[in-house]
Write a structure and sequence with these properties.
The termini are far apart. The chain has helices at about 1-20, 150-165, 185-195, 200, 230-235, 270-275, 275-290, 315-330, 445, 450-470; strands at about 30-35, 45-50, 60-65, 75-80, 80-85, 95-105, 115-120, 130, 140-145, 170-175, 205, 215, 225-230, 255-260, 260-265, 295-300, 335, 340-345, 360-365, 380-385, 390-395, 400-405, 410-420, 425-430. The strands form 5 sheets. A 7-stranded mixed beta sheet has the order 11-10-9-21-22-23-24. It has 10 helices and 24 strands. The protein folds into 2 domains: about 1-130, Immunoglobulin-like (Sandwich), CATH 2.60.40; about 140-470, Metallo-dependent phosphatases (Purple Acid Phosphatase, chain A, domain 2), CATH 3.60.21. About 25% of the residues lie in helices and about 25% in strands. The protein is α+β, with helices and mostly antiparallel strands and about 475 residues long. One of its GO terms (molecular function) is acid phosphatase activity.
Amino acid sequence: MKQYVMLAMALVMVSSRVCAQNGEFSPSPVPDRIILTLTATPASSQAVSWRTDTSVTQAQAQFAQATGSPDFRKSVKTIWATSSFFENIPHLEDHVVAKQHELVFTDLKPDTKYAYRVGDGSHWSEWFHFTTARADAGPVSFLYFGDSQTELKSMWSRVVREAYGTMPQVDFMLHAGDLINRSNRDSEWGEWYHAAGWINGSVPSVMTPGNHEYYDSVAGDRLDRHKKLSPYWQQSFRLPENGPAGIPELRETVYFIDYHDMRLISLNSCAARYHPETMEVQRQWLEKVLKNNPKKWTVVTHHFPLYSARKGPENLKLRTALQPLYEQYGVDLVLQGHDHTYGRGTNKDYGAQYKGDKGPVYVVSVSGPKMYDSSFYPWVDRSASNTQLYQLIKIEDNTLRYEAYTAIGDLYDAFELQKDYRGRNTFSEQAPQGVKEAVDLPLKRTKDWTDADFDDYEKRFKAYKKRKQGKTKGD
């Protein structure tokens, strides 16, 4: 009898593993999870990554300059991919083995539309298009998403699709970390890719890691020093490798991209917190990148915010290390995540930015449905809670325009920066006058609140409104 029980248990385990491998997002010989990512030279190259099952041995891509005629296929070139075996270990309930493939299209023409597909010669994806950057200082536009993290298929999908439907001609998409909730859970990564679908294969992405892209490498031990970046990151995304040398964790998480007249910089704020020795490495690297920056505009992204948009601990060590460099070298905009609420402002009192003070505009945003309450801290000029958002940033010549939209496409926040001949910015508040600030509390967050918690929230909100009413553009 004992043998039969053991056999039955073994069959259940095998069946469970097969079900997990053959679930909704299981790999097959047909390419899936196709995603374009920017390279350090976006005017002449383009990276792409995808996944198959382990039966694929020779992954490749075909590409050609796109035309209105289907005859472009007569002039395709073939390029072979670099492939690697992937297993999500340590994994949760969905054990998956697969092949990850990546390659870079090189020697491309600037400002040119190309067609491409990926496969193995027998199993092919559909044909996608992408357009390279210009070689000169033309306009640039991109979408910025705060944490997507949870309910990706059902709830984040509406945000990324609304964003693309509203602004389909953007140059790329930027994700400020916490793309998923559990770093090695394959079903969540499957939902993340599913939510954007074919958009990922047509509009390049850049991303910076959040704390949920890290996992506890020692079972039962949640000490920061044992946290590691998920293998999904570097095997799924082909990102620039021009960051600090010699530290594997920072590879493809700390980098910069020059796109037209903007320098975009990604920092790994999670590594800085979990492994403090990497903070100084990043700081020194950042200073060199900022000091030798030929571009008119500078945008930085990292997950943990320098100034928090929700009530809780501040990231003082990160702020102490980075803020002086941001102000010394004229960083224009810092795009962040983590707080699951929205805040936009400067490190000055409300109204001070109108006087031309140096220092970037800081933004914290959230695109997924997980919500926290807003802090209403003094740095915040525009706030929102319990609201899914996406942002559009447009840069042309001496103007940077920022717009934040709700999940249904309504304009919620906006401002412009005008840069003068000295490189100093004049800030113009352009938040829509008829749109009240969204301050409804998220029900899931407040279900266990006490009267004291609600009183504290009301006190913070009243102080915030008083600060705003006491300052105007003329002050």
